[in-house]
Amino acid sequence: MKVIYKICLALFLFSNISYTQTDPNIFEKFESKFYEIDGYKINVEVLGEGDPIFFLPGGPGNSHDYMQGAFGQYYKTNTVVFFDWLGRGMSDDAKDSNEYSVEADVELIEKLRKRLKLDKISLVGHSYGTIPAQAYAIKYKDNVKNMVLINGFHSGAMWQANCDSYNHYAKTHFPEKWVAVDSLRKLGYLSSQDPLKTVYGDFPTKYIYYHNTTLRSKAPKTKYRGWAGDVYTTIIGKDGDFDVSGSMINQDYRQQLKDVKAKTLVVAGRYDGVSTPEFAVQYKTFMPKAQFEMFEQSGHNPYLEEPEKFYALFDEFMGVK
User: Which of 59, 82, 234, 268 is disulfide-compatible with 280, CB 3.0–4.6 A?
Assistant: First the structure.
């Protein structure tokens, strides 16, 4: 679903709809600081005081900016940490694309925690960001206080199942468009190759990312890299919209989630076509102690679609006053 994801990201990053919970000038309050980690410059933006929260964006090709637009205001109550993974946003590109992996993203969280001299941290991941969040909370369980998983994935198998679900939806709801996809697939085109990439990305997204497609999110005025396609194809696979591979397919946290020590909130959207309810509700089984909340009027971005409910829930869970 890379192409759809990229198009939707571009769509929702062009307006300045302001909610009472967010600050329309939030980006101006942060300043980039580049930390050298493993020979690469990593863009990190930290602000505030109090219990630290790391915000982990999706993709896995996205920069941190859209998360900062939605959660940057928490600098008023917490130390908030936004950063760009290697090869994304303003961080350096890897010399070898094989350096892009879920495992590397997990280790970057730990290296930043140490570099910032923080003890326990909280993790808030959205979409792909929930993958390294869970992996970190499993591997470094004593370092995580709270964890919020927003429209996420518990395994590579779930990512593949959701791709299959979306493709079934696209085929059955838009058969006229699917004819072109099917023809290109028979010619051997992968989802990361044009012209299939363009054709596939042209499908309507109402029941995929947004239930309310009029919504937009804030974006910084300064130029930034919002999407890194090479990172996506390395982690998810060159044909990742149909056949998930890369390091993603090897992720499976289902049997380990019950042992996570962090207090956990799992958020899902009823109309989410990326992290579909069919699989999202499985968290109730795999994390029986976690708080699970289904947003009935949301797709993949409930903090935009049902902001009053979302932020009230988030504040209560995180103990924000």
Answer: 268
